[in-house]
């Protein structure tokens, strides 16, 4: 997918393009190359890179409302995660891999970053007397197509192409389609169905990287605030955390609320928490009093499932608690892997027990 400026100039001259035309496109391509981004001139050029027809790409863009579905929770029940189908997902994955992932986020960003996890996020605030947590309300869905278009334009792409890329990465919801497709589950989408401006959805592969890049200005301001006051700052998706040994150095709620408003976000004040020394201090679901670790009740619940699976058999246990048996094995293993990322020794004990389970045994 390499782009040669020399080859472009040669081809343009042979096509009798003007010097002004050549200079304009060389300048455009050079800016993208300097950022390590693919040189894309228009939608047809983009479709060529993706190995699909321009007509097919345009069709996906125009009908994208019908390319999403509601994702069930593995533990049973459902939650509002709007996920693209395979065709749209493939297009979004190309954009994510070839464009969005090329731009490195700031050091304070720990969510959706290769090589980082909730463990990295928690360790930043380990053994501090005061932990201050903030939450951004409706994080992904508050990011509109207009903001995404501006992002792609700022990365260096032409306005028309920036708009098309933003269209592919955002959506509105078709009320008639939602009510027909999901029937009783339509209530999950109620607050989104009447929005006219397309927005990011949680399940799209492009949304995490876009949200991190959209938050660059806010992260930079908060990081500089933390540096000035000698405190720690990190952001994991919609979770914002500060920590310090001096309570007076932590930012005030009003300051954070105002700054978020300037960046077109809304502070979820109900989730604002100040955790003092001696209290149960938690950052992105992990305990940070002393060594970073998984909460005791979370581990206890895993051992409870392991005990009953060993005693009665995996199928019997999960059928008894009315969970989806087809998902239960992977669900339990996923919880153990979560523990493994934080406490490998504890997870090793769990995996030993897990491997002793007879998953087809019924009683």
Can you tell me about this structure?
This protein has helices at 5-14, 19-34, 43-50, 54-62, 86-98, 118-123, 145-155, 159-169, 175-182, 207-214, 216-229, 253-262, 296-312, 314-320, 325-342, 344-354; strands at 68-72, 78-84, 130-135, 232-236, 239-244, 273-276, 282-283, 286-287. The longest helix is centred in the last third of the chain and has 18 residues, at 325-342. The model has no long low-confidence stretch (mean pLDDT 91). Strands 4-5-3-6 form a 4-stranded antiparallel β-sheet, with helices on one face. The protein contains 16 helices and 8 strands. β1 and β2 form a beta hairpin. The radius of gyration is 24 Å and the shape is globular. With 363 residues, it is of the alpha+beta class. 29% of the residues are buried.
Overview features:
4-stranded antiparallel beta sheet, two-stranded antiparallel sheet, 16 helices, globular
Low-confidence stretches are none
Continuous helix count = 16
Helix/strand/pairing category:
alpha+beta
Sheet with the most strands, sense and barrel status: 4 strands, antiparallel
> How big is the Rg?
24 Å
Could you say which overall geometry the principal axes of the C-alpha atoms support?
Answer: globular
Beta-strand portion reads: 5-15%
Mean pLDDT: 91
Helix/strand order, N-terminal first? HHHHEEHHEHHHHHEEHEEEHHHH
Find the count of extended strands (DSSP E, 2+ residues).
Answer: 8
Task: State the share of residues found in helices, binned by percent.
Answer: 40-55%
Distance between the termini: 58 Å
**What's the arrangement of strands in the largest beta sheet?**
4-5-3-6
């Amino acid at each position: 997918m390499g782009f040669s400026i020399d080859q472009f100039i040669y081809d343009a001259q042979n096509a009798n393009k003007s010097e002004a035309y050549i200079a304009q496109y060389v300048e455009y391509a050079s800016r993208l190359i300097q950022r390590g981004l693919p040189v894309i001139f228009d939608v047809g050029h983009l479709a060529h890179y993706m190995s699909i027809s321009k007509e097919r790409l345009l069709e996906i863009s125009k009908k994208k409302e019908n390319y999403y579905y509601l994702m069930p929770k593995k533990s049973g029940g459902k939650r509002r995660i709007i996920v693209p189908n395979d065709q749209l997902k493939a297009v979004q994955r190309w954009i994510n891999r070839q464009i969005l992932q090329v731009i490195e986020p700031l050091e304070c960003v720990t969510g959706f970053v290769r090589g980082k996890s909730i463990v990295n996020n928690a360790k930043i605030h380990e053994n501090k007397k005061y932990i201050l947590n903030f939450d951004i309300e409706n994080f992904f869905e508050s990011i509109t197509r207009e903001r995404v278009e501006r992002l792609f334009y700022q990365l260096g792409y032409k306005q028309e192409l920036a708009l098309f890329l933003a269209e592919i990465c955002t959506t509105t919801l078709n009320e008639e389609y939602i009510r027909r497709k999901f029937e009783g589950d339509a209530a999950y989408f109620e607050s989104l169905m009447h929005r006219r401006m397309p927005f990011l959805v949680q399940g799209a592969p492009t949304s995490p990287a876009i949200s991190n890049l959209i938050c660059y200005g806010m992260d930079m301001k908060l990081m500089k605030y933390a540096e000035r006051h000698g405190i720690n700052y990190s952001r994991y998706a919609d979770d914002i955390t500060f920590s310090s040994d001096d309570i007076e150095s932590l930012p005030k709620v009003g300051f954070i609320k105002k700054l978020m408003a300037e960046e077109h976000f809304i502070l979820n004040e109900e989730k604002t928490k100040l955790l003092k020394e001696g209290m149960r201090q938690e950052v992105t679901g992990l305990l940070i009093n002393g060594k970073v670790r998984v909460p005791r009740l979370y581990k206890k619940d895993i051992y409870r499932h392991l005990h009953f699976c060993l005693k009665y058999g995996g199928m019997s246990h999960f059928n008894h608690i009315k969970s989806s048996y087809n998902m239960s094995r992977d669900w339990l293993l996923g919880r153990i892997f979560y523990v493994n990322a934080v406490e490998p020794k504890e997870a090793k004990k769990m995996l030993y027990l897990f491997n002793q389970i007879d998953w087809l045994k019924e009683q």
